[in-house]
Amino acid sequence: MDIDKSGEEINFPEMTDKQRKIYESALEIFAQKGFSGASTGEIAKKAGVAEGLIFKHFKNKKTLFQKIAFAVVEKTLIPLTVQRIKSLLEKDYSDIRIFLTLFFEERLDFIKSNQSFLRIILQEISFDTQLQNFAREQFELKIFPLVNQFLKRHQEKGILKPLDTAVIIRLTMSSLLGYAVLRVLLFPDKNWDDKMEIQSTVDILCAGMAMGNQQLA
Amino acid sequence: MDIDKSGEEINFPEMTDKQRKIYESALEIFAQKGFSGASTGEIAKKAGVAEGLIFKHFKNKKTLFQKIAFAVVEKTLIPLTVQRIKSLLEKDYSDIRIFLTLFFEERLDFIKSNQSFLRIILQEISFDTQLQNFAREQFELKIFPLVNQFLKRHQEKGILKPLDTAVIIRLTMSSLLGYAVLRVLLFPDKNWDDKMEIQSTVDILCAGMAMGNQQLA
Amino acid sequence: MDIDKSGEEINFPEMTDKQRKIYESALEIFAQKGFSGASTGEIAKKAGVAEGLIFKHFKNKKTLFQKIAFAVVEKTLIPLTVQRIKSLLEKDYSDIRIFLTLFFEERLDFIKSNQSFLRIILQEISFDTQLQNFAREQFELKIFPLVNQFLKRHQEKGILKPLDTAVIIRLTMSSLLGYAVLRVLLFPDKNWDDKMEIQSTVDILCAGMAMGNQQLA
Amino acid sequence: MDIDKSGEEINFPEMTDKQRKIYESALEIFAQKGFSGASTGEIAKKAGVAEGLIFKHFKNKKTLFQKIAFAVVEKTLIPLTVQRIKSLLEKDYSDIRIFLTLFFEERLDFIKSNQSFLRIILQEISFDTQLQNFAREQFELKIFPLVNQFLKRHQEKGILKPLDTAVIIRLTMSSLLGYAVLRVLLFPDKNWDDKMEIQSTVDILCAGMAMGNQQLA
DNA sequence: GATGAATGAGTCTTCATTCAT
DNA sequence: CATGAATGAAGACTCATTCAT
Predict the structure, then answer these.
(1) Which H helix or E strand runs over B114?
(2) Full-model pTM
(3) pLDDT tens digit sequence for C21-36
(4) Phi and psi of D151, rounded to 5°?
(5) Which domains, and CATH codes, for chain B?
(6) Residues of A in Cβ contact (< 8 Å) with B118
(7) Looking at the partner chain, which of D34, D186, D206 has a beta carbon nearest the beta carbon of C34?
(8) Closest residue of chain B to A170, computed from CA coordinates
């Protein structure tokens, strides 16, 4: 079970108990087996409800899946992210490498703990333009401003080079994503030395983004 | 159809015409719909053969899928990659940024043209340890030595910092992968300025990996 | 339809109507065509239900067949046999030939009326050790004691020779079975004179088993 | 493999090697799995020939099966029986029990060694009137006269009671058949004491058929 | 004669979905 | 709200049979 415990508190007050059970079981099974690989029968069994009940609440399988995908973004991934990075972003750093290292560690940990949620999104998002837009909007509305403000503050202080903040964010994110895909999805069984890998990545990123006197190791 | 034309020449001489048709149709449909989402009926129809014939040649759906996944790595992705990067790696560069830019452009182009193949691999590889090992072996045998030799040569010339070549390769690859996932899989419909994005990425990577006098833009 | 009418009253209260319909149709079709020769589609059609319903209740075709085979022994063949031979065994006979004649007639009639059930068992029993044991147990528990007590009583009265009752039973049964196999299974279309055949058989058996003064014809 | 070795010499000169291979493989597989349970693919594989070849020689599966059933009667069961019982029937017996014991032992041994052939016949004969007639004809033509002459000879000598020989034969055969069905088909795994069982059966049969002074044990 | 690729109807089974209770 | 029996279409897979070589 890789469900983030703090995430479970973020709940859906409008749902009945059984509805929520269905939702949670579906989430887990979709994450394990993909949309087509999961069967409503299995979901119902895991949720401890009658098969028919799923269709009282969710109309059909596709809808159930999509509702989950959207809700995962809005109710889980975004809030959890905000909650977790807020404290990191509130502080001021004299050396950006310290921040980046903490950030990468935190995000990798987040990805590890929330694989179920992420797998759901990865499955769906490349086929569903609506979800793409929704995810982007949510990101731009709730995450981007926080990070942007943080970056600008440190650029003003001369800690960061005056690059386009969107570029900084994308680069940082894609480096992280690249590592995470290799680390978590493709080769989870390899012996990874996360500390060292993050260190190397951060060093190189910093060399490009940080102002002069912050030395590499 | 996003099948790389030069790739189609790499064929399977032991296959009959219909067998190859099955193989190709299956590849495309699996890439579009995933393993469970694809039906053998649809594959047969697209291939223009009787459904039963699939099972004469491939025993079952899972085997068909796996054979494709393995063959894609061995007969398509690896040879195409070798063929395409060889000319890049034969030259000597006085500024590593020139190489990295060409490399990123080439690889992104490759990823765009071979989405079908890559999607197949991505689907399967996170569940199939055998495929993971096979892919890693093939990479370490056929790609790594080429790149390694190139890097060592440029380190000796003082163009590259004397970092562990494995780290350089992983970092470069994961930056590329991260960008490609965003660019091709997750948000293919966004307006991307590839030239600019690659430029920024390369600049930052170079700042970390290149020796002193190669200036950033 | 060769289903024994009195047998139909022995039913399965836990079954729904459709479930029973499936059960009955399957019984008949398996009896006619054997396990592999029967198709679930045909069974469903005969039962007037959707084919899928069979698998809601019985998991798979083999299970359906086995459930039927076991139930036929326990719920039909054994109870019917007990019910039918009980009255024969309660009486006392001064000439064992009278009993044997009645017994053979009754059993042959029973076999004729319950061919469906018997064919099911014969198909399965030579391949299924569990069914063999179950059938033997049921016989030894519910039939053997009745007959044994009857034989002992008549041995004490000096009507029957003091042979091992197990041997008497096996001989009588196998003579009956041999005749029944020829009569009902192998050559049902021949013109049989059952009265005469039974008479001859009984005469010879009696000569071996009955005490002295009971004369042969 | 329960094929009688002496039987294999009785061959089909008009068949090619492969045809005979098909015939033999089919015989064995039909015997094991029944008509519907056997597949032509499996038969071809076991015979080491291409699937299509079966249909060059035998037109279709049903025909193959029927040809086998008829040939088994004509070329195997009858000749083997004749060959084996001839020596038994040529002698003269002063006590019919000696003959019957030898006969039962020989026949039980025969049934044990030729189960494959017998299972084929049992499957088919109850559904196929032609085979019924053919089997009866063959029996009446090739076996009955031998036995009949033997019985008449011993009746004339006062060893056997002057009963209808057809009745004697049927009774003897059905006693044997009944025992064999229990012994070989239904409960092959039970611990049988064949000697004792045959002894008891023969004793009782003799008491009915033999003339007075041949005492029971 | 012999092969084995190819067919297409058929088999068992699963599954999303509906509906009476 | 909740159940689970029932459906029917579709799924993967098998198999007897044909045919070009």
Answers:
(1) none
(2) 0.86
(3) 999 999 999 999 999 9
(4) -65, -50
(5) 5-209 (1.10.357.10)
(6) none
(7) D34
(8) B179
